[in-house]
Amino acid sequence: MPDYTEPHWQSAALVIIDVQRDFLDDGVMPVAGTSGVLPELARLVTAFRAASLPICHVVRLYVPGGSDVDLLRRAQIEGGAHIAAPGSAGAELPVELLDVPLDTEALLRGELQQVGPREIIMFKPRWSAFHRTHLQEWLEQNGCDTVVVAGCNLPNCPRATLFDASERDFRAVLATDAVSQVTAERLGDLARIGVKLMAAKDIAAEL
Predict the structure, then answer these.
(1) pLDDT digits 0-9 by tens, 50-109
(2) Which domains does the chain have, with CATH numbers?
(3) Nearest to 121 by CA among 69, 59, 73
(4) b/e sequence 160-178, b meaning 16+ C-beta within 10 Å
(5) Torsion from C-alpha of 110, 9, 146, 135, nearest 10 degrees
(6) According to a count of CB atoms within 10 Å of the terminal CB, is the N or C end of the chain lower?
């Protein structure tokens, strides 16, 4: 019988979620464990670039005083908090992954920032990288039927993205040692919807 969850590595894309300086250990809103997974994230980026496979860096941008924000942080941002604020150093990607400044004006307009032959930066306004973005369209344009997800804070944005990927019939992989805030419960949730759980070195070896 066909296995509709097995990754197709030759048509895989790497989706790195919310790995920005403000969420690292020395950031204004640190997410525990995010700095610690940078080496495995860098391993994945290097492997995907070497294989000429697509990479999407997904970012959050909270406009101080703005209201287009997830409910959990809306009051804080409406009150003027500066977290991953457009134009701030904290919104930028760590140089271990990409040393290119964000074009925040274009990103907030919903445009994709091209930073390499098959590498982009994309803004998302909520938890899932598929919500109000061009991610699905970009994946389809690049011939991708498999997404490898890594990044910041598994219970929130990576998990939401993986559920949405499954709903859209993408084969899905989680890089378990290249994502922060991993728990056995969350891994169990994802395994039960057909997400393949793999270490970054094993993903790199497949490429």
Answers:
(1) 999 999 999 999 999 999 999 999 999 999 999 999 999 999 999 999 999 999 999 999
(2) 9-206 (3.40.50.850)
(3) 59
(4) bbbbbbbeeebbbbbbbbb
(5) 0
(6) N
